[in-house]
Amino acid sequence: MRTAVHNPFQPGSDVVPEIWAGRTEQLSDWRDVLRPRLQAGLFERGRTVLGEPGLGKSSLVRRIAMQAERAGDWVTPQIRLALGTDPLKRIAAEVLKLADRAGLPAARENRISSLLERVQTVAASGVSLGLRDREGVEPHTALTELLVEIGHAAIRQNQVVLIHVDEVQNITDEKLLSQVLIALGDAITREVDVTVPAVGTITRSLPIAVYLTGLPEFDDRSGSRKGATFARRFATTTLEPINDDDLRSALRPLVVTGWETPSEDGSIVAVRLAPDAAETIVDVCRGEPFLFQLAGQRAWYAGSGDVITRPEVLAGWGQAEQEATSHVERILERLPPREREFLSAMAELPPWERSQGQIAAKAGFAKPTDAGTTSQRLDRVRGIIGRGKVYTFRHRAIEAFLTSDWPSLEQ
């Protein structure tokens, strides 16, 4: 009954789990703002979604992409950039697939044929010295112009184009990063003239949506290069852990109606989640989407009956403790020493004493203002803490790890 095939929980990056929790603001942004405005020909900035590992950045945009595909939009797969990859080469390869879908290879215009050939060279060779020496426009400019042609085709066919570039923090070359941002940014800001029946010629923006996802380092790495132009072209969101009410809402259908699975005799049985078991999953995961899926997955495997009980959640979590520990340790290990020192000092103080001055003193900083830049980065860039008169942990798994025996649940 509770087999691996029918387990609705799916921990791991880049997957869209069947039990979805939270992120309603970002999902409604696509449904109610970004897509309608692009369809209407209105300019809308691209979206940059950043956050620490395990917060579901890629899963969020893949869910948006699935909604777009169901609506018939032209969507790229997740263009994941490995460290050292030529980003223009990867993006060009996927843009050529969009061009095929738009029917551009069938066009008889020499201009489009030449443009396709140029981008095909980029997709094959990347931004090499030999390519730069060839006659014609720069590789990133050719990519922009092809996106513009795809946008024209999307207007004619009443479609929206969605491009998702993942792991953008891995673009470490400043020149390449600049070219990628310019190529994509120029496409989404391009205005074109179109003829509307009974109205005449109007100017509109292209229906192209661009999502960039990655770690907070992208904000650091591109900050000095992107400047005001980037801010005008891309709106950045730093994801935080999901609040407990959203997690409860995600589990509610399992509590009330259950999850339908086939039994050994072929009949359909609903596997339900006991209310106290649901509350335990919410408690142990501390708002982390990855840990939420991990706790649910292990609870599913911890028994075989048609009700997942609290003891089964606890047993499953016991098997997941090491992975949960490693998950938080990896986040902390990625931080610069000064930021780790700040968090450790903050965790050693009672919650009501976590002011900047007290934390700075505990961390051994010479004066409170020495902690200003560090706390700003932990707040604005990483989303780990919240600054105020009293500082708070927004990343509750890190807080629990530093201030208690969590993830261990032993009393």
From TrEMBL:
- Listed InterPro entries: P-loop_NTPase (IPR027417)
Keyword field: ATP-binding, Nucleotide-binding
Q: Spell out the molecular function terms from Gene Ontology.
A: ATP binding
Q: What is this protein called?
A: ATP-binding protein
Q: Which organism is it from?
A: Microbacterium enclense
Traced from the root, the source organism's taxonomic lineage reads: Bacteria, Bacillati, Actinomycetota, Actinomycetes, Micrococcales
